[in-house]
């Protein structure tokens, strides 16, 4: 059991990148992260059932992240996005961090170090990624849409 409490990931409109589907998916990821946070923040040692519950919530989270990332990557390919490889590498890194976290939790339970890593590597990383990388992709998408509109009018 950790002495630290993990703070939930807070959605705010400044995380909107103005791409309807991606924005919806980001909110769903945050919901799933917060379900993990809620079960990780149990004020007592985990029972076997609770441990299984945490693990299945992490798998539930990972499943959705994989769907979301492949959606973004498909969009990047369609748009001939110049930062595709860097963005994709960031996605791969994030999946491996969460997978790692799940394995460590299975081995050690929730230690202080793990709680800190979840805060930093799962929650803060995601918020930062949305603000920088996904926003940059959305900006590229908007330029692309505009150019497409203009060339279809001319
Ligand atoms: Fe994203
Ligand atoms: Fe992304």
From TrEMBL:
What protein family does this chain belong to?
Answer: Belongs to the hemerythrin family.
Show the SUPFAM superfamilies listed in the entry.
Answer: Hemerythrin-like
| Protein name (Swiss-Prot/TrEMBL) | Hemerythrin
Q: Which InterPro entries does this one have?
A: Haemerythrin_Fe_BS, Hemerythrin, Hemerythrin-like, Hemerythrin-like_sf, Hemerythrin_metal-bd
Organism name: Desulfurispira natronophila
**UniProt entry tagged with the keyword ATP-binding:** no
Give the Gene3D superfamilies listed for this entry.
Hemerythrin-like
Alphabetized UniProt keyword annotations: Iron, Metal-binding, Oxygen transport, Transport
Which domain of life, per UniProt? Bacteria
GO MF term (any one): oxygen carrier activity
Q: Where is the Hemerythrin-like domain?
A: 20-139
> Is Iron a UniProt keyword of this protein?
yes
Q: Which PANTHER family match?
A: BACTERIOHEMERYTHRIN
């Amino acid at each position: 059991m950790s002495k630290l409490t993990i703070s939930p990931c807070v959605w705010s409109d400044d995380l909107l990148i103005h791409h309807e589907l991606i924005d919806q998916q980001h909110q769903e990821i945050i919901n799933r992260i917060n379900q993990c946070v809620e079960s990780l923040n149990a004020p007592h040692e985990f029972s076997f059932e609770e441990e299984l519950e945490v693990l299945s919530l992490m798998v539930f989270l990972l499943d959705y992240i994989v769907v979301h990332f492949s959606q973004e990557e498909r969009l990047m390919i369609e748009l001939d996005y110049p930062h595709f490889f860097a963005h994709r590498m960031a996605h791969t890194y994030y999946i491996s961090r969460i997978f790692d976290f799940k394995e460590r939790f299975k081995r050690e339970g929730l230690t202080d170090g793990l709680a800190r890593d979840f805060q930093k590597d799962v929650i803060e990383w995601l918020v930062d990624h949305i603000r920088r990388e996904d926003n940059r992709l959305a900006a590229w998408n908007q330029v692309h849409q505009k150019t497409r509109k203009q060339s279809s009018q001319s």
